[in-house]
Amino acid sequence: MSEPLSHKATILVADDNEANLELLSGILESEGYQVVCVNTGDQALKSVRGGGVDLALLDVMMPGQTGLSACLEIKSQVETRLLPVVLVTALTGSDDRIRGIMCGADDFLNKPVNKHELLARVQSLLRMKEFTDELENAETVVFSLALSIEAKDPNTEGHCERLSEFSEALAQRLKLPVEMRVALRRAGMVHDVGKVAVPEHILLKAGPLTDEEWKVMKQHPIVGERICRPLKSFRLVLPIIRHHHEKLDGSGYPDGLKGDQIPLLARVLQITDVYDALTTDRPYRKALQPQKAFAIMREEVKRGWWDGSLVDELEALVLEVTKPV
User: Closest by alpha carbon to 171, among 59, 68, 317?
Assistant: First the structure.
């Protein structure tokens, strides 16, 4: 048998049958894996939530919390949804496998377990986990870079988090698909990451920018798109980063897009971006109340800058969030 990818990989085995636990743990430990054995689905969830588990083998027919329900819980949580889960079962019907797929299982093993099949599936899933871990690490680096840029300017503290939350909430109000909501949540955090290429004397300048300084500033959406382009999970995020400074009348940047040429998600983010800028303190003015901020935004809608329907939806959302209980 070939060497496992990592001798330090930790595999959780959940089965109420001690003989099955001994069999599976013995096979895995002989290949250098660390094994955590539990007897119930509840114990399995506790171990997974504690962190440090790289893959879970769950018996389907356990008393109490079954392998199916434990798998569904693992896959429904943001912190654990990428953990590979293999369901181990004596059931062979297609309906049972369909139930497992619906719960998010990554693979299946039939009892009695074949040693070589077990190790091949474990190794394959751990290899995939290494890829997803690398992806998560790359995203974390980009998010950290974006937050470090924000931290340079005390007037923008919390801007990325607010934009991320408001954009996703507005997308939910618009009943956009889940993948679009996720894209907006990510874009809220990294939309200005390209400002890493803008010198601080321009980025933090209190007064108006010169024409030459504006030329530099207007490059940051392009730079941000370039930084994030290697992340395949950012496919829907890239157009948001590039186009969130466009205006409907074509006077925005960097591409001078007009009307529906501007992607919907970019228009959603830009509306929340403008609102946040108006309702937070700036060196040249105090934060505006929501009513005043929306009055200014409606004047800008008349100039042909923003999507008026999105301004209406954002105002309704703000009123909903801030109304007395």
Answer: 317
Q: How far apart are CA 194 and CA 250, in angstroms?
A: 21
Quote the DSSP letter at residue 258: B
Record the tokens describing residue 114, joined without a space: 């074949």
Burial 293-321 (b: 16+ CB within 10 A, else e): bbeebeeebeeebbbbebbebbbebbeee
Residues 272-289: pLDDT tens digits?
Answer: 999 999 998 776 678 899
Tokens 């909501």 sit on residue: 181
Tell me what pLDDT residue 234 has: 87
Domains by residue range for the chain, with CATH:
10-132 (3.40.50.2300), 152-322 (1.10.3210.10)
Catalytically active residues are 195
Are the C-beta atoms of residues 52 and 35 closer than 8 Å to each other?
no
CB-CB neighbours of 176 under 10 Å: 17
